[in-house]
Structure formats: C-alpha cells, structure tokens
Amino acid sequence: MPSSLLWAVDVYGRVYSLSTAGQQWEHCRDAHLEFKRVTAVQQCCWSIACDHNIYLYVHASEVPIRYQEETYENQRWNPVDGFSDRLLPSDRWQWSDITGLKHQPLGDFQLPSENWEWEADWYIDENFGGEPTEKGGWTYAIDFPATYTKDKKWNSCVRRRRWIRYRRYKAQDTWVKIPSEQTESLPDPFNDITCGGWEITEEPRGCLALWAVSLQGKVWFRCDINHHNPEGSVWEEVPVPGEVVQISCGPGDLVWAVLWEGHLLVREGVGRDCLKGSSWVTVESPSPGVGVVHVAVGVNVVWAVTKDHKVWFRRGVNSHNPCGSGWIGMVGEMVMINVGLSDQVWAIGFEDRAVYFRQGVTASELSGKAWKVVSVPRDSERSHSSASASSLQSAGCFFGGEVRLQSQASMLSDADAETERAGGEVVPTPEIGDAPKPRIPKVTSDSFISELVSDREGQISRRDVPPAGPSIPEEDHPEKELEDRASPAQVLSPSQSGGVDPQWSNVDLEEAQTHLTSGPGGDAAETSSLSSVATYNLALEEPYGLDEPPKWAWVSGGGCLVECHTQLNWFNSSTSTALNSSMQAMSLSITPAQTAAWRKQIFEQLSERSKREMENFMHYEQAIEQSVWVKKGTMQWWRDWKPHKWVDVQFALEQFSGVEGNKDGILFIYYTFNDEKKYLHMFINEVTILVPVLNDSKHTFAIYTAERTKQRWPMRLAAATELEMHDWLALLSVSCCDSRGIQGPPSKQAIWSVTCKGDIFVSEPTKELEASPYPTPCAQMFWRQVGGHLRIIESNSLGVVWGIGYDHTAWVHTGGYGGGFFQGLASSTDNIYTQTDVKSVYIYENQRWNPVTGYTNRGLPTDRYMWSNASGLKECTKNNTKPPSPNWTWVSDWTIDYAVPGGTDREGWQYAADFPASYHGNKTLKDFVRRRRWARKCKLTTTGPWQEVPPIPLSDITILPCGPKSTVEQVSLWAISNKGDILCRLGVTSLTPGGSSWLHVGTDQPFKSISIGAVHQVWAIAKDGSAFYRGSVSAQNPAGDCWYHIPSPTGQKLKQVSVGRTSVYTVDENGNLWYRHGVTPSYPQGSSWEHISNNVRKVSVGPLDQVWVIADKVQGSHSLSCGTVCRRLGVLPMEPKGHSWDYGIGGGWDHITVRGNAMEAPRIVMPSLTDNQTATRPLQTSNQPEMNGNPVGC
Amino acid sequence: MADDKDVLRDVWFGRIPACFTLSPEETTEREAEPYYLLLPRVSYLTLVTDKVKKHFLRVMKAEDSTEMWFEYEGTPLKWHYPIGVLFDLHASNTALPWNVTVHFKNFPEHDLLHCTSNSVIEAHFMSCIKEADALKHKGQVINDMQKKDHKQLWMGLQNDKFDQFWAMNRKLMEYPTDEGGFRYIPFRMYQTMGERPFIQKLFRPVSPEGHTLTLGDLLKELFPAAICAEDEPKRFQVMIHGIEPLLETPIQWLSEHLSHPDNFLHISIIPAPSD
C-alpha cells in the first residue's frame, strides 16, 4: 500500500500534511501564504488562501502532465506549382484543425497559463494510423474532406500533414495561484471549496468536480478540470435558492451544501454527462431549531455538524437516493467534519481542536465505531517564531490590503511582545498588552461563518468605519480601531472573544452586536478553554512547544487512503514516547530478521545441544519408529467417466519416509461404484501441480500429473469449506515439494506463470529443460504455488521479479515464498505482505425493440436472458451474480460501463440487428436489439511475497534478460503505464529489485506492450497495433534516444512483443505468432515479419532465445484446454524459429515468463532428428469443443 | 541467519540417549542386558518405552510383568513430565547416556501416577493443551477445533510427526498482532528441591506499559534467586530443552518456540554445578 496524505490547516493558517506511512505532520513550507481551507484529492490539493485566491498544489508524478497540440497543414495540387499552399477559395484554411473548420496556424497556439511550458518545437507526425508514411508525413486524398491514404495516387489532388507539439505542466509540488480570469463575474471572494467527482466518469481522464462558495453565498463550479488541464478553465455560477455557507462534494455524484439558515441543499442530476448536476433539493436540519453548520459527503455517506457541535450521520444515502432517509445522532462534539476515500471520516474536535479519525468505518458499517484522536507531533520547526509572526501579520490581513498595512504598522508580533514581558520590561502600550492575541478562530469553520456575520455587520452597522471596511471580522480588530470605538476595558473583550470559539450566537446579528459592546461579561467563561491555551502557547519561550497539541482548523482526507488492514502509526504516539519506543523494540525483536543476542545464543546452544546429546549416539535405536502418517477427509470428486458429476469420496494422503530420508506419499480416493467400494490412487511424486479452480459455488482444485496434463483431464476435487480446501492444498503442496526435495524461495532461474484466476505458479527449471534435441517434456514440469494475486509477471536471471495486478498495481517480489493460504511451515516468515487486487465483474442488460413499446426487457422466446453474461448463455442478474470466488468481496455497486469496445450511446447502450451480432454505439433503423454492460468492482485481500511499487499503475513490464554468468549492475526495466506512457525504471539491481524512480520516455502515442532484449534492444507495441524500436539504448544510456516505426505484418494489428537474446517475436490480435527476420547487430530493426504459428495468445522469449507461448486452445486425449503453456521445440542458435510445439500445463493459463531461465543445456552432439519432424506444424487447434477440460474456468 | 522455524525442528527432534538397566531387585530368569534408546525430549517416558518393556519382559517371569516404572539415582521418574524436563531436572550435568533404572515391583504410589495405557497419556496431554490454550486464548482456539484436529495433535506426538503436529499446532500459537502476544504465558517452573512440584502463575507477555517481558522478568517475579548479580557466582541454571536462554529473551518468543507439544514452557531450575 503506497502512502497517501491527510491534509490539514492549523488555526494559524499553516498547511500540514500527514502521510499514512509517517508519524508526524509535515509543514508545507512552500506555502508562503496562510490558508483558510484545503480540499485534497489523490493527485492534487486545492485551497483558499488568506488573500482569497484559489491555489492549486499538484503532486509531482514521474509521468509528466503533457498535452499534445496538433494542427494540420493542407495543400492542393495545381498543374503549375504541383502541391502548394495555394488553396481554392472554397477550400479549408491552409492551417486548420482536423475538421478543416477552424483556422489554426502554428503561431496561434498559446500556453494556457504560465504554469505550462513547451517541450520542444513543432514537428511533423509521420505515423498514419499505425503505419509509417513517407518522409514529410503527407497523406493524400481526392478532395477535402475525404479519406486520406498514405500513398499518392494519380487522382490525389489534395494532401495534408499533421504537426504536433507537446506542452508540459511544470508547476508540480508547489502552490500556484489560479488566475481569476473573469473579473466581472467574480465580485466577491471565495469562502469554501470542495473537490471530488473523480469516480463519476473515466473520460476525460482525471476529471474532477470543483465547487466553491463565495462570501455572498453564491456557488461556483470550475469547468474542465482533468488530467490534461489540472487548473480547469472557467468558473460557472450555479444558481442556488438561498445563500450557501459551505459545500461538500464526494468522490461520486453526491454534492451537499449548507444554507445560511442551517438547512441543507442536495444536488440532483449529477452524472457523467452533467458534472454540475441539474437541480437542488432541500433537506431539513437534523434537529429543529438548531441549524447545520457543516456537511461532508462521501460515496454513500453524508455527515453533518449542527450549530451545537453535534455530529449527525445520514442514513440511506446513495447514488439513486442522494437525499438519504433520516438522521442519526452520533457521539462526539466537532467543529468540522470531512469524508475521505472509502468513506473514511475525519473531524476536528470542538473542545481540543484535535484531528479525529472515525475508527471502524467499513462498507458494511459506514457510520464507524468510535472517534480516535490523531496524535502525532509536527515536524520540529526552528523558524516558527518568524512563521508565527508572519502568520499573525497575515492574520491581520485576512480581509484586505489596508488592514494588513495597518496591523503591520501598529502591532508587534505576539512572540516579541511576550518576550519583552518575560524580560520584565512591560511597556504600557496603548493596546493594553496583557491580552495576547489568540487569533485562533481565524480559520475555523464556524469562524468563517462569523466572518460572514461580521461582513454583514459591517454592511449593516459599521459602514461608517472607513479603514476597517465591511470585511473585518470582529475577532481581529486592529487595536487602533478598537480604541476608536471602545474603552480600554472593552479592548479585552474582543481580543479575548477572538480566542473563543465564536459561538453560533454570533450568527444572530443582534447578539453579535451585544457581544461587542457588553465587554468581557458575556462569554468570558467560554473563552477560557481555547484562549487560555493559546495564551499559554504564546507566553512560552518557545511559542510552540512541541508537546503542546496543535490546534487544527480544517482537515481534508480526500487524498488519504485508509483501509481496514492499513497500519496507522498516528494514534497515541506523542502521548507516551517511552511506550512507543518499547513497542517498536518489541516488534523489532520479534522479527527474525533481527539478530538479537538472545536469539543467536539460542541457535548456538541448540546446535551444541544436538551435538552433545546426539552426535555420538546416532547408532542408538529410535524410540519411535517412523511410521506411515495418514490424513483423511471427505471430498467431492468430479467423476472421470460419463456422466460426469460430483460424487462424495473419502480422500486420504499417506505419507512415509523414503530410504534416503526424503518423504513421499500416495493419494487415495475411495469411492463407491455400483455399491462396490473402489479406489484410485496417485503418487505424490508424480503430481505436477495443484491448482485452485474458479468456481463460484464450490471450493475446488485440480491435481495434474504429466499423464493427466497430456489428457487435459485433471483430477478435480471439491472440499466442503474454503478452509478445508486451503488446509489440504497447503498440506499436499508441502508433501509434493518434500517428495521432490524442493524448499525455500524460488530460484533466480525460476519460470513463473499466472492463471486466469490470478494465482501465481513457479517451476524450477533443470538443465535438461532446454536440452536439445531431447528436452524434458514440459508436461513433466513441477509447479508450486506462491501466494499473491497477479495478472502479469516478468523476471530475469538475476532474481528481479515484478508483477502487475488486475488493478494495474505494480508489485516486486521480495524473495520470500508462501503467503496466501500457505501458512506456517510452507511459508517464509518475513517478506510476506498484504496484497490487494480489484477487478470488475461484467453483466449485460439485453433489450429487444417492438413496434408498440419500443425497447423493452421483453425478448422473444428464443432470445437470450434479458440479464446475461457476455455470451448470453448464462443468466446473470444484478442480484444473482456473485463475485468470482468466495475470496472476493463486492466493493462497489453496479454501474453502467461506458468504456465498452465499439462505443455506446449516452445511456450506455450498444445496438445490433440481432443477438448475437456486432454491436455499435449508435442506433440505426436496422437495429432491433440493444444491450449495455454493467460493471461491479470486487476486491481480494490476500498475502504473498510481494511489495507494492507505488504510485504509477502499469499495464506491462519487461526486465533485461541476462546470460548465465552475467554481472549486470543496473538492470534495465521498462514498463508501460496503464495510460500508455513508456517508463524506464532507474536503480534496479539484484539487491534492490524495486529500483528507485521512474524515468518517463516521451512518445507520440500510447503503448500497450514492451520488451527488452539481452543487448538492450527495446521493442514496443503502440495501442494502434504498430511496432516501434527504440534506438541507442545501452547500459550507459538506459532510456535510448528515439523511436523507429516498424510496419506491422500486413493487415494485422500487433498486441504483444517479446525479445530474447537476439530473437524478436510478436503476437497479433488474431493470435498469430510472428518472428522478426533479418535482425543483425548493425541493423537491429530487422527486415520483415515471418509467420510462425497461429493459436497463440502470448509469447515469452528467454535469454537463450527459447520460445514459450500461451496457446489459445490445445486438444488433449480426453478434453480441450484453453490457455495452455507451450514450448517451441527445435530452437537452436542457428534455427531460432524452431519446428514444432511441446505442450505443457494448461487449461486457464494467462501468462508465462521464461526470462529468468538462462541455464544452458548440456551440449550433446547428436544427429539431428528434425528432418523427420513435420516442419512448422501449426499449434494445434480444437475442433471438439468440450468445455470440461478447462479447469481454471476461463 | 537461521529461521525461527528451525528452532521448532530442533526442539522437536531433540533426543536423549538413554541406557535402561533393570533394577537388581527384580528377579530374572537370566541376566538382563541393558537397553539403549534415543528418547525424544518432547515425548513421555511411558509412551516411548514399549520396546524397553518388551526387552526386559523376555527375561522375567510372566507373573512379575506388572506396571513398569523408572527411576534415576533413587528418584522415581514422573512419566507425566516430558522426558526432556526429567532429564534437565535430574541429570543435566551428568555423563551420557542417561542411566535409567527400570522397575516392575514396588510401584511408588506416593510419587508416581499410574499409567495403564496410552489413553491415559493422551488424556493428560490433551488436558495440558487445553489448559495452555485457556491461558493463551481463553480456550477459544482449542474449542474451535474438531475432534479430528485434537487427534491430529496427539497422533503427531505419538508418531513423532513434526509436520502433522505443527500443521495443527500453529493455530494454537497465533495471537492478535495488536496485542503483542498471548493473554497469559503457559509455563511451569520446576526445581528439584522445592516442596511444590512446580510453580505456575498467571504471567502476561507484555507489561501494562507495553514493555515486552523477558525470561528475566518472569524469574524476577517467581524465582529471584535464579538471577545473580554480576559479581556473584552463578547459583542456578535456568534450563529449557537443555539450553540456557539469555535472560533478555522475550517470554512470548520462548512460549512460541520453546514450548513443549503440550504448549507449556517447561523451565527447569537446577543448582549450578559447583566446579
């Protein structure tokens, strides 16, 4: 889990952030101003500063924010000049956008704001739809607008070419002011701001909703904020039926606002087409007569704080019912509340102004259990006296320039004043110095409302006070003004009442006035708690003793990811440092990694003891004879013969010690057939793999032997409970490993594979595996499972292993083994971490058109289910669809999926003439059926020897393959982000496999596959299916210099590439495997593609140029398997293409990497037998679709 | 650095070479040869001495084949203590093999429990495990196990199957990470001279202030004499499985790794050899 940040503002307006991995508040020193409010999301943080401008802090990312500007140069042919820029009067502009309607000369492109910079100058794009064009990049057509081709024909009268230029957002990790461009429509300053909405739509990427409230109670929406435009473009006013004081926007479509009167407004109609929503609905305050002062919303929750500091939770809130159904009063008194990621709740206490975390908030218990105070120290700050001075200054300037000047002129900083007093030199000053200025409530939530009050007050009653103006809050009068208006006795009162948490009574205008005039009497008692603390604070030599708990004003958890398994070190750490350190010492001493003296001593003594007590007596008889140990159980077995069905069986494992002390065992299955008791057995040392099988109702696994792999027919068993299955799997797995003498972590040479269930398997290669001409058949390879869940895994022979989860998270292998259900003896104790993965489950809603009612869910009797899976064969309703296995839990509701291949209309529908047919995103006259895809996210939490590599989500990785005795210091590792950016990892060595940072490698289009060869040849496949070769990559120049476009095989779109020592193989979208011909050291791009095989899903070429693939379908003697590991036979240095296939484990395999196996086979010189083999025999395909032999269930 | 799991193996596979000789009081038909055997430290005498019994019965009259019992240098050996404890307590600084005298007559009713069959040992063993789990987890773990799981623990011990035993026993060794250890540490502290057979008290692995408690802390509370000041000569040896762990060893770690199969940490306190 990568660390994320909780943001907060203290009462002095200083911004702090607290990392989930950290234990102290880090002062955001970059902020030269004081801030009133912050609202954070994962990628950035928005804020309102005391100058009322909006500021943005974009976190630096290793993938830069860059935007491609494009324009087209258009030319027409005429007989005199040939192609020239002399166009016909009816033609488009000479420089235009792609449609030709907009005039766009190169010089007209301006940077959107000063926070952008150009990456380079304009250049011509020579890539045309995945194919390289001639130099110059021209594409030709008969006329504008028409279909363009890359070849000039006899009738080509016009041509155009595309110019591109990148601009890059440079203001990262710093606060930048968002220019308020519309001076005329923004009359009053902002008072509240909230950011959210990132879950509403995927398009455009990084789309955010930013809402703001002005001091006059108007609501504004910032348009067009997305990844490529982090600052957004304009403010649009959203009409409101009243005056809003505060607003909150959740990650999804919830937007709630607090009205001046204490009621709430709920925005309706927020959706992917309309981030702003359409209308407001009013919700009453939870307690009559006591208005709401603060609201915070998440995905499915709404929390509110009323005037009396009570906290309320809104029941029944969700996307369909944004208003919810009722209020529940909660424990605790808070001044503000904030809902962060996963609906976690943060608040600031009324009494102590501490940041609180709501403990125990889960999807099933959204209201949580208890408030827990976040007590961590702030980073020690030597310069705080100056900081406080400046904060005081600016505190004075909160509401306008004039006041600032005044306060600067008339005020000492409080720190100074205190020092003087401490020195006994109290100079009687006009401002009666014994009332230090606790300017605390400046930025507290309710103080803003009181500012608002004072604002009005000014308008109503103090228009005659010239310099203060309407915007001076009453708690911050510069002394001068006070002198003008009040007696010295009263001077105390406002400054002290400044220390008060300004009670809601202030909202009542009349009462506020009384406060001002009635002197210290009124709420002097109430002041005490806060102002006295503040006074104490300021009176110290160290104005901010670190042991003094900080006072917070605002907190934002919108970027802070906390989950139930997250270990937070935020609680109680500052209260007892002794305890803390001792706890640390304990946790350290319990980890075996630590070499404590006592542990060493125990190890030494134990081995001494064994020596002393046993060494000379080994000839003695053992008291207990080694006997056979049997574990028995009941299971269900998928009967081998027809009709296939689950039958109850007795299952037993008999283990015994072999002659050399190694253990072996036999597996028995006792069943009854025709009332006759029978059994079948399997030797443990013949088992090649144990595979958990995807089944949404049973806990099933499959056992293979080499023979059963050939048959494509494993022994399938189902246990009664998940726990029982895991116990058996762990036991059988240990037993299998014991019988083969395998233990400990996987070797560096290991071959890794992943099933479509995300389970990870590893096989230890022998020298004979790649022997030629008689290699070990790959059906005999033994695979053992390693904990964790991945979609892709890549390795090299230096032991660097990386994986990518279904949610695109990158993981690096820690060197451990076990995890998951392998606990205790089958797992390493350290190097095992929590791993999570998230994937979507899809179902389809199908409808048929009829002339009377249009599209309805009444289909023809012959139609598919109206709610089905993709094939339509299985009924899948929202209610009956379960997560893929009991290990997964739902983490979202069903939502319409708009990102379906082929496109959708605005409601997500795809149309077709009939089921099943090709679907398209817009309705035509010929369409009689339509469907739309619904997605629901589910999440898996497991453990394994994997550590997350934050923060960039990846879609592909490749690691430099190394020779057998290679000593490479820096291991080249390239990756593709899930947005298609190409990245190069720096600092990867065999000791630090995780590396240090990413280097972004610029490209003109998004990519989907990448591979690096043994001599740093980098090949990549773009999303449009074209291949690229990266020039000049070397150990010294790890990122290379430029891309060479390689045309793909005619008519094919490539999807994956793998480069070994010298061989380059690609797979296209139609399952063809291609070999790159003519690759030489001097011409590494090669010359042409040669077809090797069809029926291939994925290829992995190893450091010996060995070729392994995942075959689409393989027919065995009993059944068919989809997704099977296959190895190319006959691959030799001079025959890199090989001649035929060898079939390994399968049914449900998704990925394999042999790039760690650099073990050269023993050289046996034998007459070649390849002549007898059928040359280039195709990888067999099935014509006998028996889906039984598909054990992993894809 | 060796793994902590190796400790479990070393503990399990600890063996004591023993030489069984028949007591001269026994009447035999012919001279009885001594019998040599490697005894598992973690097992029980009566559980692993079927061979011994068979061996001596061959030279004895059938009518004398009553219950067999053992004695070392005049001390009857309690079969219900693990073998390693008996050895550490009575014979730790003597020459090997361990000379155990075998008796059939004159069963010392005051010193020993009768052990008529292995089911008696099993009942004793299981009651120890249950008591230990009551201390560690309020008995929740052992009670959640099924009968066959209990059987697996016992069979693991009886047949000397480390994997079989630990596949189940690891569940008994789990604890919530945020608590830093078991509720109480199941331990028994033995000494040869004491009036009581052993000391057993409630003792938590972590102090109320959150400090990890060590073997030293335990001794300080229960047997301060075992802790000697730096300059003093050592008066006692604190022995677990034939070794003397350092006093700063965390008690929780010891409980997890050096407990006997009955889940108790058996600590023998013996006078230091005077040499």
Automatic annotation (TrEMBL), chain A:
<feature type="region of interest" description="Disordered">
    <location>
        <begin position="1168"/>
        <end position="1194"/>
    </location>
</feature>
<keyword id="KW-0677">Repeat</keyword>
<comment type="similarity">
    <text>Belongs to the TECPR1 family.</text>
</comment>
<feature type="domain" description="Peroxin/Ferlin">
    <location>
        <begin position="64"/>
        <end position="125"/>
    </location>
</feature>
<keyword id="KW-0446">Lipid-binding</keyword>
<dbReference type="GO" id="GO:0006914">
    <property type="term" value="P:autophagy"/>
</dbReference>
<feature type="domain" description="Peroxin/Ferlin">
    <location>
        <begin position="836"/>
        <end position="897"/>
    </location>
</feature>
<feature type="domain" description="Peroxin/Ferlin">
    <location>
        <begin position="908"/>
        <end position="941"/>
    </location>
</feature>
<dbReference type="GO" id="GO:0031410">
    <property type="term" value="C:cytoplasmic vesicle"/>
</dbReference>
<feature type="domain" description="PH">
    <location>
        <begin position="629"/>
        <end position="739"/>
    </location>
</feature>
<dbReference type="GO" id="GO:0008289">
    <property type="term" value="F:lipid binding"/>
</dbReference>
<keyword id="KW-0458">Lysosome</keyword>
<feature type="region of interest" description="Disordered">
    <location>
        <begin position="410"/>
        <end position="504"/>
    </location>
</feature>
<feature type="compositionally biased region" description="Basic and acidic residues">
    <location>
        <begin position="453"/>
        <end position="465"/>
    </location>
</feature>
<protein>
    <recommendedName>
        <fullName>Tectonin beta-propeller repeat-containing protein 1</fullName>
    </recommendedName>
</protein>
<keyword id="KW-0072">Autophagy</keyword>
<dbReference type="InterPro" id="IPR006624">
    <property type="entry name" value="Beta-propeller_rpt_TECPR"/>
</dbReference>
<feature type="domain" description="Peroxin/Ferlin">
    <location>
        <begin position="137"/>
        <end position="170"/>
    </location>
</feature>
<dbReference type="GO" id="GO:0005765">
    <property type="term" value="C:lysosomal membrane"/>
</dbReference>
<feature type="compositionally biased region" description="Basic and acidic residues">
    <location>
        <begin position="474"/>
        <end position="486"/>
    </location>
</feature>
<dbReference type="InterPro" id="IPR001849">
    <property type="entry name" value="PH_domain"/>
</dbReference>
<feature type="compositionally biased region" description="Polar residues">
    <location>
        <begin position="1169"/>
        <end position="1187"/>
    </location>
</feature>
Automatic annotation (TrEMBL), chain B:
<protein>
    <recommendedName>
        <fullName>Autophagy protein 5</fullName>
    </recommendedName>
</protein>
<dbReference type="Pfam" id="PF20638">
    <property type="entry name" value="ATG5_UblA"/>
</dbReference>
<feature type="domain" description="Autophagy protein ATG5 UblA">
    <location>
        <begin position="11"/>
        <end position="104"/>
    </location>
</feature>
<keyword id="KW-0963">Cytoplasm</keyword>
<keyword id="KW-0053">Apoptosis</keyword>
<dbReference type="GO" id="GO:0034727">
    <property type="term" value="P:piecemeal microautophagy of the nucleus"/>
</dbReference>
<dbReference type="GO" id="GO:0002376">
    <property type="term" value="P:immune system process"/>
</dbReference>
<keyword id="KW-0007">Acetylation</keyword>
<keyword id="KW-0072">Autophagy</keyword>
<dbReference type="GO" id="GO:0000422">
    <property type="term" value="P:autophagy of mitochondrion"/>
</dbReference>
<dbReference type="GO" id="GO:0000045">
    <property type="term" value="P:autophagosome assembly"/>
</dbReference>
<comment type="subunit">
    <text>Forms a conjugate with ATG12. Part of the minor complex composed of 4 sets of ATG12-ATG5 and ATG16L1 (400 kDa); this complex interacts with ATG3 leading to disruption of ATG7 interaction and promotion of ATG8-like proteins lipidation. Forms an 800-kDa complex composed of ATG12-ATG5 and ATG16L2. The ATG12-ATG5 conjugate interacts with RAB33A; this interaction is bridged by ATG16L1 and promotes ATG12-ATG5-ATG16L1 complex recruitment to phagophores. Interacts with TECPR1; the interaction is direct and does not take place when ATG16L1 is associated with the ATG5-ATG12 conjugate.</text>
</comment>
<dbReference type="InterPro" id="IPR048318">
    <property type="entry name" value="ATG5_UblB"/>
</dbReference>
<dbReference type="GO" id="GO:0061908">
    <property type="term" value="C:phagophore"/>
</dbReference>
<comment type="subunit">
    <text>Conjugated with ATG12.</text>
</comment>
<comment type="similarity">
    <text>Belongs to the ATG5 family.</text>
</comment>
<dbReference type="GO" id="GO:0006995">
    <property type="term" value="P:cellular response to nitrogen starvation"/>
</dbReference>
<dbReference type="InterPro" id="IPR042526">
    <property type="entry name" value="Atg5_HR"/>
</dbReference>
<dbReference type="GO" id="GO:0044233">
    <property type="term" value="C:mitochondria-associated endoplasmic reticulum membrane contact site"/>
</dbReference>
<dbReference type="GO" id="GO:0006915">
    <property type="term" value="P:apoptotic process"/>
</dbReference>
<keyword id="KW-0472">Membrane</keyword>
<dbReference type="Pfam" id="PF04106">
    <property type="entry name" value="ATG5_UblB"/>
</dbReference>
